[in-house]
Amino acid sequence: MPQAIMVYPIDPYVVETLMSVKGKQLVLETTRGGISGCLVEVKPDHVVLDTRGRKFFVRICEIVWIMPE
Fold first, then answer.
1. How far apart are CA 24 and CA 49, in angstroms?
2. CA-CA distances (angstroms) from residue 24 to 8, 28, 67?
3. Which of 63, 34, 32, 31 is CA-nearest to residue 47?
4. Helices assigned H by DSSP within the chain
5. 4, 35, 36, 49: which has the fewest Cβ within 10 Å?
6. Predicted confidence (pLDDT) per residue in 25-56, tens digit
7. Are strands 33-42 and 25-30 parallel, antiparallel or unpaired?
8. SS3 helix, strand, coil % of the chain, rounded to 5?
9. Considering Cα of 60, then 63, then 67, then 69, what sign does the dihedral take?
Protein backbone atom coordinates (compact mmCIF):
# COMPACT_ATOMS: atom_id res chain seq x y z
CA MET A 1 0.00 0.00 0.00
CA PRO A 2 1.55 3.37 -1.00
CA GLN A 3 2.20 5.92 1.74
CA ALA A 4 1.78 9.67 1.44
CA ILE A 5 4.94 11.72 1.72
CA MET A 6 4.60 15.12 3.35
CA VAL A 7 6.67 17.87 1.72
CA TYR A 8 7.39 21.09 3.61
CA PRO A 9 9.20 23.55 1.39
CA ILE A 10 11.73 25.71 3.21
CA ASP A 11 12.67 29.10 1.78
CA PRO A 12 16.22 29.61 3.08
CA TYR A 13 16.36 33.27 1.99
CA VAL A 14 13.24 34.15 3.95
CA VAL A 15 14.51 32.25 7.01
CA GLU A 16 17.87 34.07 6.73
CA THR A 17 16.12 37.44 6.47
CA LEU A 18 13.92 36.66 9.47
CA MET A 19 16.98 35.59 11.50
CA SER A 20 18.56 38.99 10.78
CA VAL A 21 15.63 40.79 12.46
CA LYS A 22 15.14 38.40 15.38
CA GLY A 23 14.51 40.34 18.58
CA LYS A 24 13.30 43.42 16.70
CA GLN A 25 9.87 44.93 16.13
CA LEU A 26 8.41 44.22 12.72
CA VAL A 27 5.27 44.00 10.65
CA LEU A 28 4.37 40.75 8.90
CA GLU A 29 1.81 40.81 6.14
CA THR A 30 0.22 37.40 5.80
CA THR A 31 -2.41 35.98 3.51
CA ARG A 32 -4.87 36.62 6.39
CA GLY A 33 -3.80 40.22 7.15
CA GLY A 34 -1.06 42.14 8.91
CA ILE A 35 0.37 41.61 12.39
CA SER A 36 3.07 43.55 14.22
CA GLY A 37 5.20 42.68 17.21
CA CYS A 38 8.61 41.50 18.34
CA LEU A 39 10.05 38.52 16.50
CA VAL A 40 11.11 36.13 19.27
CA GLU A 41 11.74 32.85 17.45
CA VAL A 42 12.53 31.66 13.92
CA LYS A 43 12.12 28.03 12.88
CA PRO A 44 12.43 26.54 9.37
CA ASP A 45 8.64 26.47 8.93
CA HIS A 46 7.25 29.13 11.31
CA VAL A 47 8.02 32.21 13.39
CA VAL A 48 6.85 33.32 16.81
CA LEU A 49 5.74 36.94 17.10
CA ASP A 50 5.12 38.54 20.51
CA THR A 51 2.38 41.16 20.32
CA ARG A 52 1.81 42.85 23.68
CA GLY A 53 2.51 39.67 25.61
CA ARG A 54 0.53 37.38 23.30
CA LYS A 55 2.39 34.84 21.19
CA PHE A 56 1.44 34.33 17.55
CA PHE A 57 2.80 31.38 15.58
CA VAL A 58 2.90 32.25 11.88
CA ARG A 59 3.77 29.76 9.15
CA ILE A 60 6.50 31.16 6.90
CA CYS A 61 4.68 29.99 3.79
CA GLU A 62 1.82 32.37 4.75
CA ILE A 63 4.08 35.47 4.93
CA VAL A 64 3.68 37.87 2.00
CA TRP A 65 6.18 40.57 3.12
CA ILE A 66 8.25 41.64 6.13
CA MET A 67 8.95 45.22 7.28
CA PRO A 68 11.12 46.06 10.30
CA GLU A 69 9.69 48.96 12.33
1. 10
2. 27, 12, 11
3. 63
4. 12-20
5. 4
6. 999 999 999 999 999 999 999 999 999 999 99
7. antiparallel
8. 15, 50, 35
9. negative
